[in-house]
Design goal:
Elements: H1 4-23, H2 35-52, E1 55-60, E2 67-72, E3 80-86, E4 106-108, E5 111-113, H3 121-136, E6 143-149, H4 159-165, E7 174-177, E8 189-191, E9 193-194, E10 196-205, E11 211-212, H5 223-232, H6 255-261, H7 268-275, H8 288-293, E12 297-305, E13 315-316, E14 319-328, H9 334-347, E15 354-363, E16 366-367, H10 373-386, E17 391-393, H11 401-409, E18 413-415, E19 431-433, H12 434-455
Parallel strand pairs: 3-6, 3-7, 7-18, 8-17
Antiparallel strand pairs: 1-2, 2-6, 4-5, 5-19, 9-16, 10-14, 10-15, 11-13, 12-14
Bound molecules: ligand BES and manganese (II) ion (2 copies).
């Protein structure tokens, strides 16, 4: 029997090659033109699960992209771990900003560059390889179920139905997800919360057609200008969100909890330099760690209208648009916040324009326990692999399904993430450290071992 360290060492090249093969599929869920690639990716993942030793492997169709399921039940008396991940990726554009093509994984400086490298192919695939090791070495100490979906990046729209229709099949004692970040390889950490999301699109309509900006400009409201003003009014001078009722349900942390949160290592100068910004910014009265972890936010994700082609066109556009998202914290509710936004934004529209707010997908915030067996098992496993005790942090991103798992399956999640915030998720030149990948594979079997031990 080999130790996981030895196994990783002797299979390293293959583990990388297989991940590269997975990364070569352009499984972009947002764009229907990749539908074929998405399905092929699901089939690839299913095959890899079979090869690693999973039973009942199935590419489950949904109204959208398929969900890959597989399991290994070794003894019904043992605890069951459900591994969740997503094989879909964000669109790769703007393509011209990639140093190497997004779907041709390339190693530079010890990092794998490709769309999906960290989010989430490189991370969920660690579980497939750790599983392979546990099977090959009779080291599996829990039952295991895999559920790898293909619509996380578009709001997991069909996963809710799948979960509801498969509660028996998905029955488990804990859900493990590697789709978040840790502080660094020197300071491992475990995210213990994710923010929720409200996402809307707004449309501002002025005149009933595009107009000559000389003939009509100055006499008719320009929807682009009005949209900019409306958006600017959504924050006050302290960068608080100025939507009435927005903060009503926000759970405030105690001074002790805030102090603990702010103990995490964080270098503001390094942060500014990494992002190329002259100064940081945000809600008054809160630190950067708090602003991205325990406070809700409102961001414009895109804004357009009028002429944006080559050269100049003197036009007063009929319409202007924006995509706006709000990150939510406990105990905010996405439907309620979306409703508040809609009411407010449509309400402040002046008579010279029409404003319409269209809600998109949402997701609820979650906090995961730090006093559970699963958290303790994760803590021990990370400490063993990184020689340092991991610290709890709050994640700024969202994985809406976590709250849904809790609601539908009554099972809590451990966020065993190995990415870094600087991995360029959703950006050009997404990357994942080879060391993060291999260390992740090394950590996972210990998690299973400790989870089984502590569950006794
Ligand atoms: N893996 C991310 C979420 C994430 C990233 C959590 C980093 C914590 C740290 C996930 O794939 C993601 O991008 N989720 C979306 C939400 C979804 C509804 C589109 C997000 O956070 O924007
Ligand atoms: Mn992800
Ligand atoms: Mn993502």
């Amino acid at each position: 029997m080999q130790t996981i360290k030895e196994y990783v060492q002797s299979n390293k090249d293959r583990f990388l090659e297989e991940l590269f093969a997975l990364l070569r599929f352009p499984s972009v869920s947002a764009d229907p033109k990749y539908k074929n690639d998405v399905v092929k990716t699901a089939e690839f993942v299913a095959q890899k699960l079979k090869d690693a030793g999973a039973d009942k492997v199935e590419v489950c169709p949904t109204a959208g992209n398929p969900i890959v399921y597989g399991e290994k039940i070794i003894d019904p008396a043992l605890p069951t771990v459900l591994v969740y991940g997503h094989y879909d990726v964000q669109p790769a554009d703007p393509l011209e900003l990639w140093e190497t093509p997004p779907f041709e994984p390339t190693v530079r400086d010890g990092k794998i560059y490709a769309r999906g490298a960290a989010d989430d192919k490189g991370q969920f695939y660690m579980h497939v390889k750790a599983f392979e090791y546990m099977i090959a070495n009779q080291a599996l100490s829990c039952n295991i179920k895999f559920m790898i979906e293909g619509e996380e990046e578009v709001g997991s729209v069909n996963l809710g139905t799948f979960v509801k229709e498969n509660t028996e099949r998905l029955k488990s004692d804990v859900i493990v997800i590697s789709d978040t970040s840790m502080i660094s390889l020197e300071q491992p950490s475990i995210e213990t919360g994710l923010r929720g999301l409200s996402y809307v699109e707004v449309e501002v309509t002025g005149p009933n057609r595009d107009l000559h900006s000389g003939v009509y400009g100055g006499a008719v409201a320009n929807p682009a200008t009005i949209l900019a003003k409306l958006i600017a009014s959504l924050h006050d001078e302290n960068n608080h969100i100025a939507i009435p009722g927005f903060y009503d349900d926000v759970l405030e942390l105690s001074p002790a909890e805030r102090e603990a949160l702010n103990k995490a290592p964080f270098d503001i100068e390094e942060y500014k330099q990494d992002l190329g910004v002259g100064d940081i910014f945000g809600e008054k009265g809160f630190t950067t760690i708090e602003r991205t972890g325990i406070r809700p936010t409102l961001e414009v994700n895109g804004i357009w209208g009028g002429y944006i082609g080559e050269g100049a066109k003197t036009v007063l556009p009929s319409k202007a648009f924006a995509k706006i998202s709000m990150r939510l914290v406990p105990n905010q509710n996405s439907e309620r916040v979306t409703e508040l936004f809609k009411k407010h934004f449509e309400g402040i529209a002046p008579a010279y324009v029409k404003v319409e707010v269209k809600p998109h997908h949402g997701g609820e915030p979650v906090v995961t326990p730090t006093d559970s067996i699963a958290y303790k098992a994760a803590e021990k496993a990370l400490e063993e692999a990184f020689n340092k005790k991991p610290i709890p942090t709050r994640g700024g991103g969202s994985i809406p399904i976590v709250a849904l798992f809790e609601k539908e399956l009554n099972v809590k999640t451990v966020l065993l993430g190995f990415g870094l915030d600087s991995d360029n998720l959703h950006s050009p030149n997404e990357k994942y450290g080879i060391e993060n990948y291999l260390k992740g594979i090394e950590t996972i079997p210990s998690f299973f071992k400790y989870f089984a031990e502590l569950s006794k």
